[in-house]
Amino acid sequence: MKKIFLITALSVSFLSIAQEMTTADALRYSVENMNGTARFRGMSGAFGAVGGDLSAININPAGSLFFNNNFASASLTSFNNNNKANYFGSRDNENYSTIDLNQAGAVLVFKDMSGKSKWNKIALALNYDNSNNFDNRFYTSGVNPYNSISQYFVDQANFVANTNFNDYQYDMAYQTYIIDPHPTTPNTYVSNVSPGGNYYQDLYSTANGYNGKLTLNFASSYDDKLFLGINLNAYFTDYVLTTSLYENNDNPENPSSQPTIRNIVFDNQLSTYGSGFSLNLGAIYKFNESFRLGASYESPTWYNLNDELIQDLYTYNNVNVPASDTDIHYVGPKIIFPTYRLRTPSKYTASATYIFNKKGLISIDLASKDYSNTQYKNTNTNNFTDLNSQMSLELKNAYEIRIGGEYKIKQWSVRGGYRFEESPYKVDYAMGDLTGYSAGVGYNFGESKLDLSYANSHRNYNQRLISSGMNDTSRIRNVQDNITLTYSINF
Question: pLDDT band at 87, cuts 50/70/90?
Fold first, then answer.
C-alpha cells in the first residue's frame, strides 16, 4: 500500500476546501417552509392582516391582538416528500414520510375596560414552530457520458499542491489510487479512472433534522384601530445529511505502468447544528369591521453554526496495483470545523384582508426577500469572500404571494389557499419557482376547536452529485404533501 502521509493539524484554510460550503447550504436556512397550525396552512399562510392564530404571529406580530380570550393550540403534521429524478435520461422515484409535533403555543390577552387609556389591549404569546422540517430522501442514477467523480479529487489535490497545506481528501484519494502525480508537470495531479466516458453513477441521499423556532410575542392596540407587535425569535437547528455516491466503468485499462480504477464508493456524513436569533415588527390598521391592512418586517436571522464531517472512500477491482491493494477502504478522520456564522436575508410583507359579515374572509399577502444579502462569516477570520460574492451575483430579490379564504357555516369552517414563491436565483436552473395549494376544514365546539388541513407544493431543482470537479446535475421534481391536525382551546 502507498506510504501514508502524516496529516498535520487542520488550519483555518482547510475549512474552505474540505467543508466546501455552497449556495444551497445557505438557502437551507434562508428559504422557509410554510409550517404551522391547520388553519394557517389551510389558507396557505395568508394571515398578515388576519391574525387570531398562533402561527400568524410569525407573519405579523400584531396578529396576537385579534384573540378575544386566552388561547392555546398544538399541531401534528404528516410530512411527505416525493422526489422524481432524471439523470442523463434515467428516471428514479423516492418517497419519504414523517410525523411531527410541529406547533405548540399559547397567548394571554389583557383588556383595559376602564376607558382611561386608548391603549386598551395587550397580548403576550409564546409559540413554537418547526419552521423547517429537513427530513427527506432521494435517489438518482444514470450513465454519465462525460465526467468521472474522480475529477473532484483531482480538484482537491491540485488545490492542496498549490496552497502548501495538507488535506486528508488528497491523501485518501492518493491512498486508494484514484489520483497520482502528473508524470511531467510538477504540483499537478491526474485521475487514474480510465478515460472514455460512460461512467455509471448513482447517489443516495438521506437528510434528517429540523429548524425549530421559539417566539416570544408582545403586542398592544390603540383605540381598537391600530395594532402593533414585536417578536423575539430564538432558533435551534440540527441537520444530518448522509450521502453515498457510487461510480463504475469498464473502459479500456490505462497503460500497464498506471493504475486503473473500476469502482468508487464515496460516503459522506455531514452534521450541522447551532442556534440563531431574529426579531419581527408588525402593524395592522383596522379601517372598519370589514377591511384591514397590515405591514411587517422580519430581520435577518443570525446563526452560529457548527459542522462535523466524516468521509469514507472505497475503490474496488483496481488494476495495475499490488495484489493487496485491489480493494481498498480508507476511513477519513472525524473533522470538527470552527464555528461559523450565517446571516439570512430580511423580509418585508404587506397584507390586506376583507371580512364578509363575520362569516367569511379573503386575505392576500405579498412578501419580498433579497437573497443576495445572504452572507457567511467565520468567527476567527472571514474566509468566505468568494462564496459571499458568488451568492450576491447568483441570488436575487424574490417575491412571494399568498392568497387565502375562509367561510363559516354554523360551527363549521372551510378554507382554501394558493401560494407562489419565486426562485431565489436570478437564473432558476438551480432551483425553480414554488407553487402550492391548500384546503382545510374546522369545527368549533364552543370552548375548543379542531382543524384539519391539506397542503401540496412542488418545485424543481438541479442536484449536483458532488460539490466540485463536475457540473453534471440530476433534475429533481420535489412534491410535498402535508396533512396537519390542530387542537385549540380557549382558557
Answer: very high
CATH 3.20.20.80 is the classification of domain 14-490: no
pLDDT confidence of residue 1: 53
Q: Is the pLDDT confidence value at 461 over 50?
A: yes
Using the predicted structure, report yes or no on whether residue 316 has a pLDDT greater than 90: yes
pLDDT tens for 355-379 read 998 899 999 999 999 999 999 998 6
Could you tell me if 230 and 238 are in contact, meaning their C-beta atoms sit under 8 angstroms apart?
no
More confident residue, 115 or 173: 173
Across the range 192-216, mean pLDDT stands at: 96
Task: List pLDDT tens digits, range 93-134.
Answer: 999 999 999 999 999 999 988 878 899 999 999 999 999 999
Residue type, 367: A
CA distances (Å), 58 to each of 35, 62, 237, 296, 382, in order? 10, 10, 18, 10, 32
Instruction: With beta carbons less than 8 A apart as the criterion, state whether 72 and 103 touch.
Output: no
Q: Which residues contact 151 (CB under 8 A, 6 or more apart)?
A: 191, 469, 470
d(CA 383, CA 481): 39
Q: Is 110 exposed, middle or buried (0-12, 13-18, 19+ CB in 10 A)?
A: exposed
Task: Specify whether the CB–CB gap between 22 and 233 falls below 8 A.
Answer: no
Q: Where are the domains of the chain?
A: 14-490
CA distance 361 to 349: 19
